[in-house]
Design brief:
By secondary structure, the protein is of the alpha/beta class. It is globular, with a radius of gyration of 22 Å. The longest helix is centred in the middle third of the chain and has 26 residues. The protein folds into 2 domains: 166 residues, Nitrogenase molybdenum iron protein domain (Rossmann fold, 3-Layer(aba) Sandwich), CATH 3.40.50; 116 residues, Nitrogenase molybdenum iron protein domain (Rossmann fold, 3-Layer(aba) Sandwich). The N and C termini lie far apart (81 Å).
Protein backbone atom coordinates (compact mmCIF):
# COMPACT_ATOMS: atom_id res chain seq x y z
CA UNK A 1 0.00 0.00 0.00
CA UNK A 2 2.86 2.35 0.84
CA UNK A 3 4.47 1.70 -2.53
CA UNK A 4 1.12 2.28 -4.25
CA UNK A 5 0.74 5.67 -2.51
CA UNK A 6 4.25 6.65 -3.57
CA UNK A 7 3.47 5.81 -7.22
CA UNK A 8 0.16 7.71 -7.13
CA UNK A 9 1.86 10.72 -5.56
CA UNK A 10 4.55 10.64 -8.21
CA UNK A 11 1.99 10.46 -11.02
CA UNK A 12 -0.08 13.28 -9.58
CA UNK A 13 3.04 15.35 -9.06
CA UNK A 14 4.07 14.75 -12.64
CA UNK A 15 0.64 15.76 -13.91
CA UNK A 16 0.74 18.92 -11.82
CA UNK A 17 4.18 19.79 -13.19
CA UNK A 18 2.96 19.17 -16.73
CA UNK A 19 -0.05 21.41 -16.20
CA UNK A 20 2.17 24.14 -14.79
CA UNK A 21 4.61 23.83 -17.69
CA UNK A 22 1.84 24.28 -20.24
CA UNK A 23 -0.19 26.92 -18.39
CA UNK A 24 -0.52 30.08 -20.45
CA UNK A 25 0.80 33.37 -19.18
CA UNK A 26 -2.06 35.72 -18.37
CA UNK A 27 -1.01 39.05 -19.86
CA UNK A 28 -2.89 42.33 -19.37
CA UNK A 29 -2.00 45.32 -21.56
CA UNK A 30 -3.33 48.82 -21.11
CA UNK A 31 -3.76 49.48 -24.86
CA UNK A 32 -4.64 47.36 -27.91
CA UNK A 33 -1.34 48.10 -29.68
CA UNK A 34 0.68 46.78 -26.75
CA UNK A 35 -1.71 43.83 -26.68
CA UNK A 36 -1.11 43.19 -30.37
CA UNK A 37 2.66 43.00 -29.85
CA UNK A 38 2.29 40.78 -26.78
CA UNK A 39 -0.06 38.43 -28.63
CA UNK A 40 2.35 37.92 -31.54
CA UNK A 41 5.37 37.48 -29.30
CA UNK A 42 3.60 35.08 -26.95
CA UNK A 43 1.65 33.13 -29.54
CA UNK A 44 -0.16 30.12 -28.04
CA UNK A 45 1.85 30.45 -24.83
CA UNK A 46 -0.03 33.54 -23.64
CA UNK A 47 -3.55 34.77 -23.07
CA UNK A 48 -3.69 38.52 -23.71
CA UNK A 49 -6.32 41.03 -22.62
CA UNK A 50 -6.23 44.74 -23.48
CA UNK A 51 -8.03 47.09 -21.09
CA UNK A 52 -8.43 50.06 -23.42
CA UNK A 53 -10.61 49.62 -26.51
CA UNK A 54 -9.43 50.44 -30.06
CA UNK A 55 -11.67 53.51 -30.45
CA UNK A 56 -11.42 54.73 -26.87
CA UNK A 57 -9.20 57.65 -25.88
CA UNK A 58 -6.44 55.90 -23.88
CA UNK A 59 -6.22 58.89 -21.54
CA UNK A 60 -9.79 58.31 -20.37
CA UNK A 61 -10.58 54.62 -19.95
CA UNK A 62 -13.64 53.80 -17.90
CA UNK A 63 -12.59 51.63 -14.95
CA UNK A 64 -14.74 48.50 -14.71
CA UNK A 65 -14.86 45.70 -12.09
CA UNK A 66 -13.97 43.16 -14.78
CA UNK A 67 -10.62 44.91 -15.22
CA UNK A 68 -9.83 44.37 -11.54
CA UNK A 69 -10.55 40.66 -11.95
CA UNK A 70 -8.24 40.50 -14.97
CA UNK A 71 -5.45 42.32 -13.12
CA UNK A 72 -5.77 39.99 -10.14
CA UNK A 73 -5.21 37.02 -12.46
CA UNK A 74 -2.38 38.60 -14.46
CA UNK A 75 1.12 37.16 -14.59
CA UNK A 76 2.31 40.18 -16.57
CA UNK A 77 1.05 43.76 -16.84
CA UNK A 78 2.33 45.92 -19.69
CA UNK A 79 1.61 49.65 -19.59
CA UNK A 80 2.45 52.52 -21.94
CA UNK A 81 3.70 54.67 -19.08
CA UNK A 82 4.75 58.33 -19.36
CA UNK A 83 1.53 59.12 -17.43
CA UNK A 84 -0.77 58.02 -20.26
CA UNK A 85 -2.80 55.84 -17.87
CA UNK A 86 -2.43 58.06 -14.80
CA UNK A 87 -6.14 58.91 -14.73
CA UNK A 88 -7.36 55.31 -14.40
CA UNK A 89 -4.71 52.58 -13.96
CA UNK A 90 -3.63 53.50 -10.39
CA UNK A 91 -7.27 53.37 -9.25
CA UNK A 92 -7.61 49.85 -10.66
CA UNK A 93 -4.34 48.64 -9.18
CA UNK A 94 -5.28 50.00 -5.76
CA UNK A 95 -8.08 47.43 -5.72
CA UNK A 96 -5.94 44.44 -6.72
CA UNK A 97 -3.99 42.07 -4.52
CA UNK A 98 -1.63 40.71 -7.15
CA UNK A 99 2.01 40.90 -6.05
CA UNK A 100 3.16 39.73 -9.51
CA UNK A 101 2.34 43.08 -11.11
CA UNK A 102 3.48 45.50 -8.44
CA UNK A 103 6.07 48.10 -9.44
CA UNK A 104 9.50 46.51 -9.49
CA UNK A 105 8.14 42.98 -9.90
CA UNK A 106 9.18 40.86 -12.93
CA UNK A 107 5.56 40.83 -14.08
CA UNK A 108 5.31 44.62 -14.42
CA UNK A 109 6.62 46.29 -17.58
CA UNK A 110 6.43 50.04 -18.02
CA UNK A 111 7.22 50.28 -21.73
CA UNK A 112 7.73 54.03 -21.52
CA UNK A 113 10.98 53.43 -19.65
CA UNK A 114 12.67 51.62 -22.56
CA UNK A 115 12.22 54.30 -25.27
CA UNK A 116 13.52 57.83 -25.74
CA UNK A 117 10.45 60.11 -25.46
CA UNK A 118 9.79 63.29 -27.39
CA UNK A 119 8.56 66.59 -25.95
CA UNK A 120 9.99 66.23 -22.47
CA UNK A 121 9.24 69.58 -20.78
CA UNK A 122 12.32 71.65 -20.05
CA UNK A 123 10.71 73.23 -16.99
CA UNK A 124 8.33 72.19 -14.24
CA UNK A 125 4.82 71.29 -15.42
CA UNK A 126 1.68 72.89 -14.00
CA UNK A 127 -2.02 72.79 -14.88
CA UNK A 128 -1.85 76.08 -16.79
CA UNK A 129 0.01 74.18 -19.52
CA UNK A 130 -2.89 71.77 -20.08
CA UNK A 131 -2.46 68.00 -19.93
CA UNK A 132 1.28 68.06 -20.49
CA UNK A 133 3.11 64.88 -19.48
CA UNK A 134 6.09 65.59 -17.26
CA UNK A 135 8.11 62.65 -18.60
CA UNK A 136 7.40 63.25 -22.29
CA UNK A 137 4.86 62.44 -24.98
CA UNK A 138 3.35 58.97 -24.35
CA UNK A 139 2.13 58.30 -27.92
CA UNK A 140 5.37 56.65 -29.03
CA UNK A 141 3.69 53.59 -30.54
CA UNK A 142 3.00 55.65 -33.66
CA UNK A 143 6.71 55.23 -34.41
CA UNK A 144 7.62 51.73 -35.68
CA UNK A 145 11.24 52.07 -34.52
CA UNK A 146 10.17 52.66 -30.94
CA UNK A 147 7.57 49.89 -31.26
CA UNK A 148 10.40 47.50 -32.14
CA UNK A 149 12.22 48.49 -28.95
CA UNK A 150 9.05 47.86 -26.96
CA UNK A 151 8.60 44.46 -28.64
CA UNK A 152 12.11 43.48 -27.55
CA UNK A 153 11.33 44.57 -23.98
CA UNK A 154 8.14 42.49 -23.95
CA UNK A 155 10.07 39.47 -25.20
CA UNK A 156 12.71 39.91 -22.51
CA UNK A 157 10.04 40.19 -19.85
CA UNK A 158 8.18 37.08 -21.02
CA UNK A 159 11.48 35.18 -20.99
CA UNK A 160 12.17 36.36 -17.45
CA UNK A 161 8.78 35.29 -16.16
CA UNK A 162 8.61 32.09 -18.24
CA UNK A 163 12.22 30.93 -18.65
CA UNK A 164 11.29 27.55 -20.13
CA UNK A 165 9.76 29.19 -23.22
CA UNK A 166 12.33 31.94 -23.77
CA UNK A 167 13.40 30.43 -27.08
CA UNK A 168 9.87 30.42 -28.46
CA UNK A 169 9.37 34.06 -27.51
CA UNK A 170 12.64 35.01 -29.20
CA UNK A 171 11.65 33.18 -32.40
CA UNK A 172 8.27 34.93 -32.47
CA UNK A 173 9.98 38.28 -31.95
CA UNK A 174 12.17 37.77 -35.03
CA UNK A 175 9.10 37.15 -37.18
CA UNK A 176 7.30 40.17 -35.74
CA UNK A 177 10.28 42.49 -36.24
CA UNK A 178 10.57 41.41 -39.86
CA UNK A 179 6.92 42.29 -40.43
CA UNK A 180 7.24 45.67 -38.70
CA UNK A 181 10.34 46.50 -40.76
CA UNK A 182 8.54 45.62 -43.99
CA UNK A 183 5.57 47.79 -42.99
CA UNK A 184 7.87 50.67 -42.05
CA UNK A 185 9.67 50.44 -45.38
CA UNK A 186 6.34 50.65 -47.19
CA UNK A 187 5.26 53.60 -45.05
CA UNK A 188 8.51 55.46 -45.74
CA UNK A 189 8.11 54.93 -49.47
CA UNK A 190 4.57 56.31 -49.36
CA UNK A 191 5.42 59.37 -47.26
CA UNK A 192 8.88 60.26 -48.59
CA UNK A 193 7.45 62.51 -51.36
CA UNK A 194 5.75 64.60 -48.65
CA UNK A 195 8.72 65.10 -46.35
CA UNK A 196 8.44 68.59 -44.89
CA UNK A 197 4.70 68.84 -45.64
CA UNK A 198 2.89 71.09 -43.17
CA UNK A 199 0.02 69.51 -41.24
CA UNK A 200 -2.25 70.28 -38.30
CA UNK A 201 -3.13 67.63 -35.72
CA UNK A 202 -5.93 67.70 -33.17
CA UNK A 203 -3.93 66.52 -30.15
CA UNK A 204 -0.22 65.87 -29.72
CA UNK A 205 -0.83 62.18 -30.37
CA UNK A 206 0.93 62.22 -33.74
CA UNK A 207 4.26 63.85 -32.90
CA UNK A 208 6.14 60.56 -33.25
CA UNK A 209 4.51 59.83 -36.60
CA UNK A 210 5.51 63.27 -37.90
CA UNK A 211 9.03 62.97 -36.51
CA UNK A 212 9.62 59.55 -38.07
CA UNK A 213 8.44 60.49 -41.55
CA UNK A 214 9.54 64.10 -41.69
CA UNK A 215 6.14 65.81 -41.53
CA UNK A 216 5.90 69.32 -40.08
CA UNK A 217 3.20 69.82 -37.43
CA UNK A 218 2.66 73.58 -37.56
CA UNK A 219 -0.09 73.67 -34.92
CA UNK A 220 -2.78 71.70 -33.10
CA UNK A 221 -6.54 72.16 -32.93
CA UNK A 222 -6.19 72.11 -29.15
CA UNK A 223 -4.47 75.34 -28.05
CA UNK A 224 -2.95 73.31 -25.22
CA UNK A 225 -3.10 69.52 -24.69
CA UNK A 226 -6.57 68.56 -23.49
CA UNK A 227 -7.95 72.11 -23.78
CA UNK A 228 -10.85 72.65 -26.26
CA UNK A 229 -10.23 75.25 -28.98
CA UNK A 230 -11.56 78.75 -28.40
CA UNK A 231 -13.05 80.93 -31.17
CA UNK A 232 -9.93 83.08 -31.19
CA UNK A 233 -7.67 80.05 -31.54
CA UNK A 234 -9.78 78.71 -34.40
CA UNK A 235 -9.66 82.06 -36.21
CA UNK A 236 -5.88 82.28 -35.82
CA UNK A 237 -5.49 78.68 -36.94
CA UNK A 238 -7.50 79.33 -40.11
CA UNK A 239 -5.21 82.24 -40.98
CA UNK A 240 -2.12 80.18 -40.29
CA UNK A 241 -3.33 77.21 -42.34
CA UNK A 242 -4.02 79.48 -45.30
CA UNK A 243 -0.61 81.13 -45.04
CA UNK A 244 1.19 77.78 -44.67
CA UNK A 245 -0.93 76.04 -47.32
CA UNK A 246 -1.77 73.21 -44.92
CA UNK A 247 -3.44 70.34 -46.78
CA UNK A 248 -4.35 67.98 -43.93
CA UNK A 249 -5.86 68.07 -40.46
CA UNK A 250 -5.16 64.76 -38.69
CA UNK A 251 -7.63 63.70 -36.02
CA UNK A 252 -8.10 60.58 -33.90
CA UNK A 253 -11.48 58.77 -33.98
CA UNK A 254 -12.61 59.83 -30.49
CA UNK A 255 -12.42 63.61 -30.97
CA UNK A 256 -15.29 65.81 -32.14
CA UNK A 257 -14.90 66.53 -35.85
CA UNK A 258 -16.84 69.79 -36.01
CA UNK A 259 -13.84 72.11 -35.59
CA UNK A 260 -11.53 70.15 -37.95
CA UNK A 261 -14.30 70.14 -40.56
CA UNK A 262 -14.75 73.89 -40.13
CA UNK A 263 -11.01 74.36 -40.61
CA UNK A 264 -11.14 72.23 -43.75
CA UNK A 265 -14.09 74.19 -45.12
CA UNK A 266 -12.37 77.54 -44.57
CA UNK A 267 -8.92 76.56 -45.83
CA UNK A 268 -9.41 73.83 -48.45
CA UNK A 269 -7.56 71.28 -46.33
CA UNK A 270 -8.91 67.77 -45.78
CA UNK A 271 -9.67 65.99 -42.51
CA UNK A 272 -7.83 62.69 -42.08
CA UNK A 273 -9.11 60.20 -39.49
CA UNK A 274 -6.03 58.45 -38.08
CA UNK A 275 -6.64 55.16 -36.23
CA UNK A 276 -4.22 55.59 -33.35
CA UNK A 277 -4.65 52.06 -31.99
CA UNK A 278 -4.64 48.53 -33.39
CA UNK A 279 -8.16 47.29 -34.11
CA UNK A 280 -9.66 50.72 -34.66
CA UNK A 281 -10.56 49.77 -38.21
CA UNK A 282 -11.02 46.37 -39.91
CA UNK A 283 -7.70 46.74 -41.76
CA UNK A 284 -5.72 47.26 -38.54
CA UNK A 285 -5.92 43.95 -36.70
CA UNK A 286 -2.17 43.87 -36.03
CA UNK A 287 0.56 46.46 -35.57
CA UNK A 288 2.22 46.24 -39.02
CA UNK A 289 -1.19 46.74 -40.65
CA UNK A 290 -1.75 49.86 -38.55
CA UNK A 291 1.59 51.31 -39.70
CA UNK A 292 0.71 50.76 -43.35
CA UNK A 293 -2.86 52.06 -43.18
CA UNK A 294 -1.92 55.30 -41.40
CA UNK A 295 0.85 56.02 -43.92
CA UNK A 296 -1.39 55.24 -46.87
CA UNK A 297 -4.18 57.48 -45.61
CA UNK A 298 -1.93 60.44 -44.88
CA UNK A 299 -0.07 60.08 -48.18
CA UNK A 300 -3.30 59.97 -50.17
CA UNK A 301 -4.52 63.16 -48.54
CA UNK A 302 -1.24 65.06 -48.97
CA UNK A 303 -1.15 63.91 -52.56
CA UNK A 304 -4.60 65.33 -53.27
CA UNK A 305 -6.41 61.99 -53.22
CA UNK A 306 -9.84 61.26 -51.73
Amino acid sequence: MKAYKVVVAAVLGGLASLATAHAKLNVVCTTPDLGALAREIGGPLVEVRSIGRPNENPHFVEAKPSYIVALNRADVLIEVGLELEIGWLPALLDQTRNAKIRKGSPGRLNAGTVIQPLEVPAAAVDRSMGDVHASGNPHYMMDPERAKIVAQAITDRFAKVDVANAGAYADNLKKLLARIEAAEAEAKKLLEPYRGAKIVTYHKSLSYLADRYGLNVVNTVEPKPGIPPSPSHIAALIDQMKADKVKAVLIEPWYDRSVPELLAEKTGAKVVIVPLLVGGEPETQDYPSLVKLVAKRVAQTLGGGP
